[in-house]
């Protein structure tokens, strides 16, 4: 099968660059599966997983929103943050989850509920993805 080059880039620098057969991710408009020869496009991403498939091996990467760009034989994912499954600190994500849940249940006047919901979503996404590569 033909391969496609994928790069994941964050404000902190590149997270990965690989040749894979298929890139799957969740754009705001729905699931996207990108193979070599895909038409050029740009789409916004949700907090979710990027899956890199080659043969029957799948690598999971957690991303916290951003954009996917497909251009020629290259896929670039620009994300606010991104971690490969094996680099996810599970204890840290559990703490972030507990913090966000506490903020949402305490419902103090000054809390920014949307911000807490986003933090909870990032933490749940990391925990979910870390599970896939254990
Ligand atoms: P926290 O409250 O633990 O910082 P967060 O969701 O607010 O979580 P982000 O702002 O999304 O964190 O990310 C800040 C930086 O920390 C990014 O570089 C991100 O890749 C990294 N990061 C955040 N949580 C984890 C984690 N559980 N494991 C590994 N890296 C993480």
From TrEMBL:
It is a peripheral membrane protein. It comes from the Bacteria. Residues 86-131 form the ATP synthase epsilon subunit C-terminal domain. Keywords: ATP synthesis, Cell membrane, CF(1), Coiled coil, Hydrogen ion transport, Ion transport, Membrane, Transport. Residues 90-133 form a coiled coil. Produces ATP from ADP in the presence of a proton gradient across the membrane. PANTHER family: ATP SYNTHASE DELTA/EPSILON CHAIN (PTHR13822), ATP SYNTHASE EPSILON CHAIN, CHLOROPLASTIC (PTHR13822:SF10). F-type ATPases have 2 components, CF(1) - the catalytic core - and CF(0) - the membrane proton channel. CF(1) has five subunits: alpha(3), beta(3), gamma(1), delta(1), epsilon(1). CF(0) has three main subunits: a, b and c. This is ATP synthase epsilon chain. It comes from Pradoshia eiseniae.
């Amino acid at each position: 099968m033909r391969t496609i080059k994928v790069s994941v880039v964050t404000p902190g620098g590149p997270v990965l660059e690989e040749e894979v057969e298929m890139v799957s991710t969740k754009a705001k408009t729905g699931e996207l599966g990108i193979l070599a020869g895909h038409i050029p496009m740009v789409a916004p991403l949700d907090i979710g997983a990027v899956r890199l498939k080659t043969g029957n091996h799948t690598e999971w990467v957690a991303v916290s929103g951003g954009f996917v760009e497909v251009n020629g034989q290259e896929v670039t994912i620009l994300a606010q943050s991104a971690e490969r499954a094996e680099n996810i600190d599970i204890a840290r994500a559990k703490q972030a989850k507990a913090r966000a849940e506490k903020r949402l249940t305490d419902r103090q006047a000054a809390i920014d509920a949307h911000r807490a919901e986003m933090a909870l979503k990032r933490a749940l996404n990391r925990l979910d993805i870390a599970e896939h590569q254990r």
